[in-house]
Amino acid sequence: MTPVLQPIVGLPDGVIGFEGAGRIEASDYRDVLMPAIGGLIEQGRDVRIVLVFEHFDGMSAGGAWQDLKVGVEQLTKWKRIALVTDLDWMITVASLFGWMTPGELRRFPLADRDRAVAWAAGG
To answer: Rg of the chain's alpha carbons, rounded to an integer?
Structure first.
């Protein structure tokens, strides 16, 4: 199965990013996201991540569990999460529950993708 999360190339040093389209499964976390986050942490870096969702079909129960674990396992290492989307429901969820995410979360519209990358790399 092809992962829903696809790495974004050409990001500033220390920033990882993924584009998601479709339904996120536990395997997306296990095989794509966790190795990238683990690589940053092994290098002694904070987690700075850009997540781009133009289309999103939800998350499996296993994906939701992995999402929770990703945030909790390395809580102090999360620095910045740039969520890039125009999806109304994601914007609402980010505004309601963003305070629960580890690190600083900021939402950007798709048109401001470059600004989101710069913000994730900054500070």
So the answer is: 13
